[in-house]
From TrEMBL:
Gene3D superfamilies: Classic Zinc Finger (3.30.160.60). This is C2H2-type domain-containing protein. The keyword Zinc applies. Residues 206-233 have a biased composition (Low complexity). It is found in: Nucleus. Residues 190-249 are annotated as: Disordered. It comes from Bimuria novae-zelandiae CBS 107.79. GO terms for cellular component: nucleus. SUPFAM superfamilies: beta-beta-alpha zinc fingers (SSF57667).
């Protein structure tokens, strides 16, 4: 049996396995607080066998430990210091999949970098920029600056020049330039009077008579009683079949004035439904990028003014162009994303990825990620590829509910750290699909870096250099 160690000083450590002793109680408390092998609460003067027990003690004692870290147990003087410590030292792991290629990323800035700089094999950097500019265009349309009215005026000028009537009318784009001699060469036949068609004489009775009610050779009592038994029931014929009620005549003969049956409708397709919606209600600018020259929806015709025979820029710059190529070059050079600006600290960044890193760091002095409309700003910044929501940390949700004494009233109340006002939250990012998203065409082959301009047809499939 090993000999027990006698403490040299008069105040031994309260942990049984610790042989240390001190001259005063204050020195002993300092020892337990600073020693890594001791799980000691200095505010409550309690010893715990493990760190988990100490963490639970701090979690369920909000009157003394409302600014203690739930992960490492470190105490802070302010709530903002605790929040900053947790967000920098104990980040929650996240998985953000790319909706194009399916690759996952642990941080939102890495996903945006993957899309912005063309690392995705499905979504090119030009397509990503197009989605971002489209979000900016939609936000301008939904604002109260009068931009929507001007945008609709540009579209209405093109709609007014269209002539969708099947008969009559003269198109503005096709004036009559033919000579009168060409019209006189056409031989027109003289109009003949219309002769009325022979209408069938309506029958005198409502329904055609049945064969058994017709008198072919005189009606007798015997013929009327034939086929009946004493019980009044009809007997079957010799062949076991009955005579047809309408005498074998077709429906056209029986009902000459009935309208013909309509042919079945065509098979439903999404393309036909979209075309019908456009014809009835106009272009859905929310889900269509008709202004983007690098999109499959590119259509400059709605911005053409037939009176001045020029194309209007769909953006607020109000420039006009004689050719479609001039309008295309103008949009790609003047209305693309060059720099990104933080709306809170007003700093400029050279890329969307740099601004995303600035927003993702909740420990920075800028409080843009703590704004109530941060989700709206993030959706506009990333073109609809990212969304965010503030949630309670997952290591706080599993806490049980206990009863503690309220310091203000002195009564026992139920308390759960995940439901408390001082519960630690984090920003949960998730991948989202833009409203103008179109399923990309499958690439049959890709050689070298890729790009929109280097596309070619390989075995009837889209390919890129």
């Amino acid at each position: 049996m090993p000999a027990s160690l006698t403490p040299i000083n008069g105040v031994p450590c309260t942990y049984p396995d610790c042989p240390a002793s001190f001259a005063t109680v204050r020195q002993m408390h300092r020892h337990k607080k600073e020693a890594e092998e001791h799980d000691y609460c200095s505010l409550c003067d309690k010893d715990f066998e493990s760190y988990d027990d100490l963490a639970l003690h701090k979690a369920f004692t909000p009157e003394k430990h409302n600014k203690a870290c739930r992960v490492c147990g470190e105490e802070f003087k302010s709530r903002s210091g605790l929040q900053r410590h947790i967000e920098l030292s104990h980040k929650v792991k996240q998985k953000l999949p790319c909706i194009g290629c399916g690759e996952t990323f642990p941080a939102s800035a890495m996903l945006i970098e993957h899309l912005e700089f063309g690392y995705c094999k499905v979504i090119s950097e030009h397509q990503f920029t197009g989605h971002v500019v489209h979000k900016k265009l939609i936000s301008n349309l939904l604002s109260d600056g009068g931009y929507k009215d001007r945008f609709m005026q540009k579209l209405s000028q093109f709609d007014a020049a269209l002539d969708e009537e099947e008969e009559g009318g003269i198109g503005l784009e096709n004036p009559l330039e033919e000579e009168e001699d060409e019209a006189q060469k056409i031989a027109f036949k003289a109009l003949q009077p219309e002769e009325p068609e022979e209408t069938p004489v309506p029958p005198t009775v409502l329904w055609p008579t049945l064969p058994r009610d017709r008198n072919t050779s005189g009606s007798t009592i015997t013929s009327s009683l034939s086929g009946k038994t004493l019980g009044g029931s009809e007997t079957e014929t010799a062949a076991g079949s009955q005579t047809k009620a309408w005498g074998g005549r077709s429906a056209k003969q029986l009902f000459p004035s009935a309208k013909p049956t309509q042919p079945p409708a065509k098979e439903f397709t999404i393309e036909a439904a979209d075309h019908q919606t456009v014809q009835q209600h106009g272009i859905n600018i929310m889900s269509t990028r008709i202004w983007d020259p690098l999109s499959r929806d590119w259509n400059p015709e709605p911005f053409y003014n037939a009176l001045i025979q020029k194309y209007f820029c769909p953006f607020p710059c109000e420039q006009t162009f004689n050719e479609v190529s001039e309008m295309k070059d103008h949009i790609l050079t003047s209305h693309r994303v060059n720099r990104a600006k933080c709306p809170y600290c007003l700093k400029y960044f050279d890329s969307i990825t740099a601004l995303m890193c600035h927003c993702q760091s909740r420990g920075s002095r800028c409080l843009v990620n703590k704004a109530t409309d941060f989700n709206i700003f993030l959706d506009k910044l990333t073109g609809g590829f990212l969304s965010v929501k503030e949630k309670v940390r997952p290591d706080h949700i599993a806490d049980k509910t206990v009863e503690i004494r309220d310091a203000a009233t002195g009564q026992m109340v139920k308390y759960a750290p995940s439901e408390a006002p001082q519960a630690i939250t984090y920003l949960e990012y998730s991948s989202s699909t833009p409203p103008d998203w179109k399923e990309p065409e499958k690439v049959a082959a890709q050689i070298s870096g890729g790009g929109v301009s280097g596309t070619f047809n390989y075995r009837n499939k889209l390919s890129r250099w």
